[in-house]
Amino acid sequence: MLYDEIDWADVWIEQMKLHNEADEQVQQPDRWGTYENARRFWQSSRKSGKRLEKTLREIKHDSDSRILDIGAGPGSMAIPLAQRVSHVTAVEPAEGMTEVLKENIKHYHLNNVTCIQKNWEDASLEELDSPYDVIVASYSLHVPDIREAIEKIQQLSSGKVYIYWFAGATSWDKNYSRIWPQLHGRQYYPSPKCDVLYNVLYRMGIYPDMENFELIHETRFSSLDEAVQHYKPHYKIATNEQEQILRSHLEEILEKKGDELVQVGRSSRVKISWDNSH
């Protein structure tokens, strides 16, 4: 097939379908659905102050800006942005993440954040209350149809759009691939990466700026048991036998740092941005 004949939106759909097959085969709670995992994610994001501040500086905004945060999580970006702008709408499907997000809104005494607990593809244009000066999707567009997701973003945007995504195999892709056949009897398929996303945008007439950067992310545990409990939803663990495979795997990959066990995640990321205000 010639390059010009490739439907990149269909490539995304197929790759994401393969990636999500484990979810369909093994009924497990969403990895971020638990309060404990969401709280751990929030605490980890607090420790990346310099990286977060750099990201916030890159997102062009002022005190009058209305911002839409897609896949807001516990508020890693929504909370500091809400302290600087007029309004933030935070779309987040996971129950645990939403619970922590609402706690953080209360803790920081914010009254300018609207929470919508839905998947991006399920949130209606009416409840999203557009337009937005800035739309951010930080590693959150795990959607079945990326073209449809971008079309919705375009309908809501009157300014800058920032999408953060992955370039190449991540360290967790490699870790999953090592033991997925033992756990689930099939190959692990990673989610589609930025090459597919860029080509979808290009075919839509969107020619974005792209900036690559490396990221190291640490997740810390007080014990191996704690790490196993944390990663069981990630690896879709349903049986005692699978748990033992996971435990052995974590013993190999976790690094000992003082009294803690640390999962060091390394990945190449990309910031994709464009401006709809012209």
TrEMBL record:
Assigned keywords, A-Z: Methyltransferase, Transferase
Record-given protein name: FkbM family methyltransferase
Keyword Transferase: yes
Coiled-coil residues: none
InterPro entries named in the record: CFA/CMAS, Methyltransf_25, SAM-dependent_MTases_sf
Domain of life: Archaea
GO molecular function terms attached to this record: methyltransferase activity
Domain Methyltransferase: residue ranges: 67-155
Source species of the chain: Methanohalophilus euhalobius
One Gene Ontology term from the biological process aspect of the record: methylation
Signal peptide stretch: none
